[in-house]
Design goal:
It is a single chain. By secondary structure, this protein is α/β, with parallel strands linked by helices. The protein has one domain: Aldolase class I (TIM Barrel). About 45% of the residues lie in helices and about 15% in strands. It is built from 12 helices and 8 strands. An 8-stranded parallel barrel has the order 1-2-3-4-5-6-7-8, surrounded by 5 helices. Helix 2 links the parallel strand 2 and strand 3. Helix 1 packs parallel to helix 12. The longest helix has 19 residues. The radius of gyration is 17 Å and the shape is globular.
């Protein structure tokens, strides 16, 4: 069975002191929940402080982005080498990076390679825009996003895919559990054609997009959905704890 994963993407929220307060509010509760991999992804400025807070716990730490060069004259960027000393996971290709910072498939592919090169575990985001969904182009868009020539290396490394329909991110308009399950099933079939059924069955594919403590059960009850990438609800300790707890209970039963 694939171990479910719940990751909290805090985005550009929380000062260092607010991040410390939030971690302190959820650490003990998260530690009591078994059979779920728990990852929190605060802003870069809080990574060092949060790393100290979660030492000895079952909580894993992730960054929200990285640059694809190890070092150099790239003012303001964060290299994979810098992250390797701080965290275990990194989010790559989030739709907000694609939309606001014009990240292309080529740039995202370079970031994945750079992260793998220093041993970081990757949460790679993919998903279609509203107009693409309404035009029936979801599978076409996902196929393009999944078509790296290095796909077999990526999936064999333990890369995690996050299916995030762009139209559901931060809008309050989540996909239905059935929609998420069917689309993630298509993604798994695509990986099977690329890399073989064995690898496809091992790859964890999670859902992201307006996930809350009220709708998480609908997603976690789906057989193809291996967890969630949680945005706004991960900034509220009680909500995030509820999401992780419900995931543990539902996936344990399955």
């Amino acid at each position: 069975m694939r171990v479910p994963l719940i990751a909290g993407n805090w985005k550009m929220n929380t000062t260092v002191s607010e991040a410390i307060k939030l971690v302190n509010e959820m650490r003990l509760g998260l530690d009591e929940i078994n059979n779920v991999e728990k990852v929190i992804c605060p802003p870069f400025v809080s990574l060092a402080a949060v790393k100290e807070l979660i030492k000895g716990s079952t909580i894993k730490l992730g960054a929200q982005n990285l640059y694809f060069e190890s070092k150099g004259a790239y003012t303001g960027e964060i290299s994979p080498l810098m992250l390797a000393d701080l965290c275990e996971f990194v989010i790559v290709g989030h739709s907000e990076r694609r939309q606001y910072f014009q990240e292309t498939e080529e740039i995202i592919d370079r970031k994945v390679k750079a992260a793998l090169g220093v041993g970081l575990k990757i949460i790679l985001c993919i998903g279609e825009k509203l107009e693409e969904n309404e035009a029936g182009r979801t599978e076409e868009v996902l196929t393009r996003q999944l078509s790296s020539p290095s796909a077999k290396i990526y999936y064999s490394s333990g890369l995690i895919l996050a299916y995030e329909p762009v139209w559901a991110i931060g809008t309050g308009r989540a996909a239905s559990g059935k929609q998420a399950n069917e689309t993630i099933g298509f993604i798994r079939q695509h990986i099977s054609r690329q890399c073989g059924r064995g690898i496809a069955q091992e790859v964890r594919i999670i859902y992201g997009g307006s996930v809350t403590s009220d709708n998480i059960a609908e997603f976690m009850s789906q057989p193809e959905v291996d967890g969630a990438l949680v945005g706004g609800a991960s900034l509220k300790a009680d909500d995030f704890l509820s999401i992780v707890r419900q995931t543990s209970e539902i996936k344990r039963v399955r």
